[in-house]
Amino acid sequence: MQAGGGFCSSVACIPLPHPVLPMAQAGGGLSPVLCASDPIPSISFPTLVLAVAMTTLFVLKLAAFVQRNRSGLLAVSCAGIFGANIFYHAFPQQTFRTVYQCWSRGQPAELPEQLRSLFWEVLRDTDVRSAGNVQAFAAFGFQPVSAGIPWLPSGSLVGIPANFANATDDGQGVVNRVVMINGEEVDWHSEDGVHLKEALTLSKEAQKFSLAREVIYSQSSSPILQAAVAPTCLLGVSLSAVAVKQLLGLYSSPLLLRGLYNLAALVVGLVGYFLAYDAVSHWLDYRCDRRTAALSEDYARGGVEFYEKLLFRNRTLRKLMGKRGEEMYAPSGNLFPRYGFRLKQAPYTSRRDLIVKVLKLHQA
């Protein structure tokens, strides 16, 4: 086969960018080619045996190291997992705020004075002792968010949606913003747009409930409790696995049997962690809602409105988002589990029903 004045006797030539392959002249220069007649390089049997032996030796040494230092490694692992989970609560200004900060014309949006006054009113109602360690900022979205631990130097942050300033009467704080769903701007004059505006328009009582709930969440050390779930599960599973091994005498059993037992313990530990994390999250949600609604009858009434509007919003989004909305939201307005059996947040309907019971106690 002739190519640019050169000649290659092979049946087919495939250009490859490897410098050690045979060269064929093409267009006056040299280009690397791999000919079909060239032998494919193979690994010799002694080399393969040596590689397997070295890998096995490394695994055995690693297992022996873990066995000798398992207590220290377990302590370091638990501390590392807890630190990773609590990191953005310990430094909310550098982590949390940069994610949720609302921007306007290339600059961080300032929180309106109306919302500052509303926030200080909530701090007085919740009887926050270290009010100076709880700061508010303008956040994007339509729901308040929070992070941080008040008694740490960085304090805690509460992100207040900017639309809260003008969303209590005619909903102008909602419709003067561009909301994109499925790549299309929401038409606030359409039927679904009117429903969405109604769902996003909250009274002062509902706004105060949503803010007070975030303040109480951070004041009650909820971030620490949630961050401690993973290391606690790791510690419990590790100690339980060792105790069961000793009880059944598995340390003297074959390596394959011990490996299968360790794999089973790992699966049980992961499932236990998922269930424990979701259970703790639900308990914290219910506790914060109950404490917030117990402040006064106005807060309880605002809590019922807040969750009613939240469910109405999700039902509207389910319709606007089409197939994706049906996958995310239930017909009732609750969230569908994202990962199979996991439900990280308590259902909104049950949280609303809890606050209804607290409201009836206020009215009794």
Shape annotation: elongated
Give the helix/strand class. Answer: mainly alpha
Count every helix, treating DSSP H or I runs of 4 or more residues as helices: 13
Low-confidence stretches: 1-36
Beta-strand portion reads: 5-15%
Q: SSE order, as H and E? A: EEEEEHHHEEHEEEHEEHHHHHHHH
Number of strands: 12
The end-to-end distance, rounded to whole angstroms, is 98 Å
Main sheet record: 3 strands, antiparallel
* Average pLDDT reading: 82
Could you describe the 3D structure shown?
The protein has about 375 residues and is mostly helical. It has a domain at about 1-35. Helices cover about 55% and strands about 10% of the residues. It contains 13 helices and twelve strands. It has helices spanning about 45-70, 70-90, 95-100, 115-125, 170-175, 190-200, 205-220, 220-225, 230-250, 255-295, 295-320, 325-330, 350-364; strands at about 1-5, 5, 15, 25, 30-35, 105, 105-110, 135-140, 145-150, 155-160, 180, 185. It has a three-stranded antiparallel sheet with strand order 3-5-4, with no helix packed on it. A hairpin with a 2-residue loop joins strand 4 and strand 5 (about 30-35). Helix 6 runs antiparallel to helix 11 and helix 10 (about 255-295) packs parallel to helix 13 (about 350-364). The chain is elongated.
